[in-house]
Prior knowledge:
By secondary structure, the chain is mostly helical. The chain contains seven helices and two strands; from the N terminus they run αααββαααα.
Amino acid sequence: MLTNPTRYGLIACRYLVWGWHNGVWLNAPEIAERYRMNVRALSPALRRLVLAGILRSQCGGTRPGFMLSRPPEEVTMLEVVRALEGNFRMDCCRTVLSSVRCSCETECCLVCGVFRDMLDELRRRLSDVSLEEHAATEEFSGGV
């Protein structure tokens, strides 16, 4: 399950793709207003994306805000989710719950194996979708 900052960050990226194509820096209040989000809930996601190098931030000047650091067709959804959520992993139950009695071996546990396979498929699918494709699901008209 994705956290709210991850959801907000993924939604914001659609507008940031528009900003990239139009050479417009978008600030957090503008993005939040467009999608009717709480700006305080959106801000941590934008900070994480800046720290990961997916976004650039500009303070001061005539147009402070955020912009993608690379063309949107070069940024995958997997990169964005990893920046916002961290890496997907499935640890053996004994690793997570040290006191649990479990006789399975970490590498051959069927339950862990199923989840690992699902996470591998999710990683593959997210790496196949660029931000450009993600933003194509939304129509943009007019300016900021």
